## 1
Amino acid sequence: SRTYVVTGSASGVGACVAGLLRERGDRVVGVDLRDAEVQADLSTDEGRERAVEEVLAATDGTVDAVVACAGISAPVPTTVAVNFFGVTRFLTGLLPALERSQAPRVAVVSSMATLQPVSEAIVDACLADDEDEALRVAGTLAEQGPQVGYLAYPSSKRALSRWVRRECVTAAWAGRGIPLNAVAPGTVLTPMTTQLLSTPESVAMVDAAVPMPLNGHQSPESVASLLLWLTDAANTHVTGQTIYDDGGADAVLRGDDV
Ligand code: NAI
């Protein structure tokens, strides 16, 4: 049995991942704002550091895998704090614990929103590990209303997918034998999308932006099963990938981009 850290374990995809792992007998340390083994706010450095400390205490310092699901999609700067820095800084803090595992693996949840328009200034600030600047830019966008403020979400996810690609080959990750990947879902039926999918008009808007010709809106299980494979010992060579697990949204939107 392996020890997994799952962020966002209280709801949606994270709850599904944690449930599947527990069912098959793996040990899960959930991290979330509430209803979790480790209750911490991943939107602040203080919360991230406390989360790392409490995970280390709960696991005796060895972590076999991390599945980072915690995320928000609100048109506010905190979205960048949770979705990017709440993943990258938390994972970096857990590297020593992952290094003690026989088969360390990490997977994060990105989004097909990586393909949507972004704020390059936010993406650049994220990749420069400059949280103050990323939040400052996201704040100026949020002041222009929710439609512009929403750029925080695709920007945080594109930066996350790019971070995965850059980091995976470095001494910190490949050097420690840790595959690092992202899964990019389409529209998943979780509390995050309940409101968004509450009227025929809003469903039509979502479906126009996120075309899913294969099987339509997806279950959290459809995302969780891929996250489990990527973080299984069986995955020895898949790394740096953002795998679009999205009913064909990426194939529709990007076409021949291979
Ligand atoms: P959800 O809202 O059901 O679950 C997200 C969890 O993250 C919640 O339990 C929440 O408390 C936790 N969380 C939020 N802020 C936090 C913070 N500051 N510190 C610690 N935990 C925090 O959402 P869902 O749908 O399960 O989303 C999971 C991931 O999938 C997110 O990263 C989201 O961006 C991504 N995603 C979701 C899609 C969807 O259609 N639902 C589509 C593509 C990506």
## 2
Amino acid sequence: MLSQQELKQQAADAALEFVEQVAGPDVIIGVGTGSTADLFIDGLARFKGRIGGTVASSERSAARLAGHGLKVLDLNDVATMPIYVDGADEIDANLHMIKGGGGALTREKIVASVAERFICIADESKLVQTLGKFPLPLEVIPMARESVSRALTALGGQPRLRDGFITDNGNIILDVSGLAITDARGFEALVNNLPGVVTCGLFALAGADVALLATQNGIRRLD
Ligand code: 5RP
């Protein structure tokens, strides 16, 4: 029986095969945030000198990449990336995701938007039928904490301030539990439109292109 850590490693290794396919001196790889993304970063170290560099979705991932001697570029200097590799807190069969457990959702969405393909790496426990059991993270401008909380309560959720956490962009996170999100694209658009919401942790309007889900019997790929 493989442990969850071993499953995460398996998913990270599967994503490294995609890097192998696209690697080249001018190729930039987009890199996510979290414990699964950390394993991907550690494996990416062996591509030092074989890729042009990386763009990171958080200060945390940037530091880990730099620690391996990998070049970390400013997204403003990068026009395109063949792949962006990141984990998820939940993913459904439509490749819609909830992300932001690590609080990096805004930069993740921005970096992913510049990549041609989003490759989601996770263990199979992240695959759900309906999104929302994992509390939906929202990055919010601090002065909008209460107004956004009230709006989410009216939408049927229970928002809770993530205690003592400030994002890389200087904002707060509200984690919204009690949601069963049946129309992920519609709900993402609705929440994105609330004044004060910087980013909604739903990645459905632009979901993953490929999911590499590690199981006890190997990688299950969803396209
Ligand atoms: C960070 C994220 C992560 O991808 C998500 O929380 C999954 O993390 P892990 O790989 O540690 O389970 O969205 O903001």
